[in-house]
Structure formats: C-alpha cells, structure tokens
Specification:
- With 77 residues, the protein is mostly helical.
- The chain has one domain.
- It is built from four helices and two strands, in the order βααααβ.
- It starts with a strand and ends in a 14-residue tail after the last strand.
- 14% of the residues are buried.
Length: 77
C-alpha cells in the first residue's frame, strides 16, 4: 500500500490520513473538487486550504495526478 494520497481521487477517510488535515480541510478539498474539478498543484491546494501552509510531511504524501478514473462526459455532452 502506497503512503501517497492522490488528492483528486481520495475519499474523505483517505484525505484525513494526510498529516495535519482535519475535517474542515477535507470539506474544503471536496467542495473545491465538486465545483472546479481537479486540484492542479501545491499552490492551488494551499489556496483551497485558505492559504494554510500545511505540514511538510503532508506535502511529501500528496500526489496531484489527474483523476483519470473519473467518469468521462456522456457522448454529445
């Protein structure tokens, strides 16, 4: 099992595994993803978290891979 967390695919329980992330930060991440799509990089994640710098250990575990396993748009959408 990888100790990395794919920020754009992680469920709430997986996000809570990140050092220093609590329920409030999880809600902010989920809200952003629902409204704007994938989080692109560390700068964008910091903004989503309200400028909160986060623990260095958290940044070492976050991956910003695209959410390739999400459903594609319906044909003709």
């Amino acid at each position: 099992m990888s100790d990395r967390v794919r920020i754009n695919l992680a469920n709430p329980a997986e996000l809570l595994e990140l050092p220093g992330i609590g329920p409030e930060q999880v809600r902010a991440i989920l809200k952003f993803r629902a409204e704007h799509g994938p989080i692109q990089d560390a700068n964008q994640l910091a903004k989503v978290l309200g400028g909160w710098p986060g623990a260095e250990a958290m940044w070492e575990r976050v991956e910003f891979d695209p959410a390739e396993t999400t459903s594609p748009e319906a044909p003709g959408a």
